[in-house]
Write a structure and sequence with these properties.
Carbamate kinase, 9-stranded mixed beta sheet, 10 helices, binds uridine-5'-diphosphate
Length: 240
Amino acid sequence: MSAVPAYKRILLKLSGEALMGDDSYGINRAVTERIVSEIGEVVRLGVQVAVVVGGGNIFRGIAPAAAGMDRANADYMGMLATVMNAMALQDAMKRFGLGCRVQSALNLEQVAEPFIRGKALRYLEDGKVVIFAAGTGNPFFTTDTAAALRGVEMDAEVVIKATKVDGVYTDDPKLNSAATRYQKLSFDEAINRNLKVMDATALTLCRDQNLPIIVFSIFKHGALQRVVMGQDEGTLVHCN
Ligand code: UDP
């Protein structure tokens, strides 16, 4: 096995749920620190890391209030939830001595820089982690789509999607013990079989821009590093 990482620049998509661990909502400090230390290991390998963070962990706590709300309004609340997660991640990164910047798709200049592509690219080249907050800045989208969009804009070689499951399976492995993990999958297979990789908007953007996706488990220790080293970890979704 080569000791050289398989990628120079990655876009890591962390769902809000990744930060809550086994809690029912919110940000779990120990889990956040473990994820940050794994990101730190990858940065130390010389890989440039951009992160898009979701907001489901916080949004879930306010879901009753959002129910029945105007959809666009609720979506802006969801985007604000991602900003809290981005700030928590940045704080943990600072404690770990990792250089990090947060750029927000919504204007929140007291807490985060606005999204400026050229600046974000420079930070990455300087070895800083760039966390993109507030999704795409538009309602009716998801942070998966933001991950695909920022991945393309940042010229990332791969979008690495952290989930609770160690890849894409033929069926739900919790319900069907015969379900098997796909090692590789084409975009068209993932879309036609409606496999849970990312939402359709994100998948088609990645397919059209030839940006592969790797789905892996953030709860499996060392898995992120193995993905970055090009080892058989998770599921690779690729163009033919
Ligand atoms: N959201 C949005 N536009 C975006 C990204 C996110 O409106 O570009 C809102 C949407 O309401 C979503 C919420 O923010 O439900 C949190 O994002 P997401 O569900 O993608 O977070 P995750 O499930 O990854 O934690």
